[in-house]
Give the backbone structure.
Amino acid sequence: MRGPLPGKPRLAVPAGLAVPQPAAFKPPKGTRAVLSNGMVVHMLRDATFPVAHLTAFIRAGKIHDPAGKIGLGDMAAGLLRDGGAGGLAPERMDEKLEFLGASVESSVGIEESRLTLTSLSKDLDEVLDIYAAILTAPAFDPEKTAIRREELLELIRRRDDDTARQAVREALRAFYGPGHPYGWRPEEATVQAVTGDDMRAWHADFCRPGNVILAVAGDFGTEEQLLARLEARFSGWKGGAAALPGIPPVGLPRGRRVFLLRKDIPQASVVLVLGALKRHDPREFALMVANEMLGGGLSSRLTSEIRSRHGLAYSVYSYPVKKPDHGYLLAYCGTKPESAGRAAAEMLRQFDLMGQEEPPAEEVKRAKDAIANSFIFRFPTPFDLISERAAFEYYGYRESALDDYVDRINATGQADVQGVSREVLSTGDALLLFVGDPDKFDARPDEFGPVTELKEE
Amino acid sequence: MPAPRVVFTPMSLTSDRTLPKGAEQETDPRLPPVVSYTLANGLRLLILEKRFVPTVSFTMFFKVGNADCRPGKTGLAHLFEHMAFKGTTTINSAGYELEKPALDRVEAAAQALIAAESSGKASAESLEALREELDKAQEAADALSVKDEYLKIYNSLGESGLNAMTSADYTVYVVSLPSNRLEAWMTLESDRFKNPVLREFYRERDVVLEERRMGESDPNRVIWEALLSSAFSEHPYRNPTIGWPEDIRRLTRTDAERFYRTFYTPDNATLTVTGDVDPAEVIALAEKHFGDWKRGTAPDRNCPEEPPQNGEKLRAVRFNAAPALRIGFKNPGMDHPDIYPLIMAGETLSGGKTGRFYRNLVEGRQLALYAWAGASTPGNRYPSLFVVAAAPKAPHTAEELDAAVMEEIARLAEETPTRWELDRTLNNYQAEMIKQLESNTGLGMSLAQNEAIMGDWRFDWKAGEHLRRVTPEDVSRAAARYLTRANRTAVFLGAQEAA
């Protein structure tokens, strides 16, 4: 924290708190096993409550959709759960699960699909039967397919109702290009193009034992009992890892780009996007610390300047996202149209300052402490912990990556922070997106760079 | 048949430790072994020991919400909540003896500006001059403060989820820390609530106005605000928690300090501590740090009673967004026995994919993108609303969906639900009761809320017993009595004004 100002009579921070002891915590390992069909299982038994949780990481994300069928993953993953399976009609499945107070849910993310299960321990066998049927033999019921398709089309119709989400989505779309999987979004035509055969092929290609990592936690009996339960249901299911569709290379133009989306709305959105790191870049820890200082934490520079000092925003933050080849760092600010220009200028200034000036040692230390000391909150429950272990394997991290995470953060120095800031946070090649009514703005968007106007469809 | 009740034997009782006199530990094996204790000044403590990771979650809960704000002062509870992050006489201050007079000059300048703005007679030039004066006073006060020191301390301590929430009924301050920071929390938070200094008040008011603008840009918030302000004509549940903009602009630091003195007293607070802690140590530290916090005098809680509704209210809200529907039926309040059949009615209509709304409106007739119901919004301290939230799927309209929702409700009133439907709800309720114990933060919040608002942290478990006794006939009877056209308010939102 900042040192006392002249005239400050005494240290405000109670003496016992000034140097907090590090929070020593070694996350439990859990157990990693491989089923006879090659499926990897991470498990952590905890019998505190009579509940069991399970999730499957399935190597299939929105970026793996075919270009003409964007939305396939959304349709297929949704219908894993809703389309019936293993001879069980969809309605019957709903009745069985809901009567037991159990849940099985499926979803698709950017780079992964998930199938999760929650069940009281006493019902685990019955729920696991349904879960296994969903993962290995989904039926993609045609009537449910039609309903799911209509739901996705309605969500497309509604996607601009939430301006903040619209702004972030459109900024990334402009950044990577609407034809690149990192930037694209489903459209009516691409959702309409998805067929039942496409979904069956999606399942055959991606949902295979070699493509799935399971994480299980809770009161599931002994590890041997759990493995026997899983073998009984999955040993007949075969298939190695599948080749994923290739992602086209990312091409980012040089120079500042400004986009404007006109919308008459009480609060404008300002989004800043920069090219950042790919996954496994050794600079990711330094960037994490830099972002904590810039816009990650409660007392970060963006929050402190734009919100607290100037009262320009309620919501202002930044975060980095890793990608297989070319990640990004995004900052968001919601402000009244009359201060959109001032907010954008302050965001740019704060980004550039990060690389231009040596970061104060005290600020770097606080950012590192914040990340290191709050590390344990990634595992509030055994299920969160074992899911994190599975996720680290899914994303190709070393087995010990979770265990030496805090050490890697602590090893970050001031020079590392400034170095990565200079490389990543300089705004010369930044993309800036404004959503709002430019006639009410306090600055013209073209004062920030050449403007491309986007249209709401 | 509903599933058998679960017994919490795996959660260890702390009977091997000596609890101080006056502390009680729950021993009913169907309930979590919560330790409860009340300080002499009235501060109520609830402690639940849970050990997986060395963390602890704190919930400091005050029974004060927007319903306690006087007319013209809506949003004061929420604005105070923001101010409670701005430090104390020692934290965020470079020396309070010097800072205090500077803050008083800010207050005088702000009150002069608000008076001039409210008079409607001041010239643009004189308003500008008053604004400049306020800016100057604020800058002078800033120079005597230490910016964001409170937040930076928590940052270094490794906080997770440092936040606060205000509702119609309550205000709650939450944070989780590594468990070896127990005394750090006690030190910081006892100071926070005993010695707050509301510095940067007028800038934070601007932040809140931005928060309000964010809501005004969001059709979901706009439609809820329209429902509450239309459904209630007198009761403060009609006001948005964030406040009406014209009220927020006139709130002063003096208002907030008066509000603090009235409601932020230990006898109006409940503290839950869940996680890797020793209850005896929590009690000892609470005595040490909070023991000298002065008890308050019972605040005036009288607020206008809502008159009986004498007919259907319909409202159309024009907003550039896809159509949506909200319906509110006046309920009899959480202390009325009819609330349990109403909860069952809500679950029968909208519990999961086997609920009637999903089966018949989302699937079936395919009118709705979503439709759900809940028995008590926006609060539980006073009679509130049984609500239905729904959105149509194009080409269907909100009006068509409204008709279909009302048909489902009429059917529930005419034909009793099946035993299977009620048992499904009971089984899910029980499973949820177990799952909520898994999360420290969620559990802390629910224990505090039940203790402070419903009168007993065991409320959810007791409610489960009430729900078990509800018959299918009770559900239909409650639907016929409360879920009627004459008792409802419906709001239709869309780009076109509804017919």
